[in-house]
Amino acid sequence: MTDTPTFTKGAIVRLNSGGPKMTALADAAGEKIECQWFDRNGKMHKAMFDTAALSAFKSAW
Fold first, then answer.
1. What is the chain's mean pLDDT, rounded?
2. Of 30, 31, 10, 32, the residue nearest 22 (C-alpha)
């Protein structure tokens, strides 16, 4: 059994160290997941992240 988190396509995630909210672009049950986000200037970015470095985003509302 592994402690690797799982995320579904469309999940809102954030790096454990902080940063912008990101959208998971595919289901992930492995070690890496591609995410997409917009910077404060509205430019879109995509990158691969270790799933262990991400947490599901929880709104304060």
1. 89
2. 10
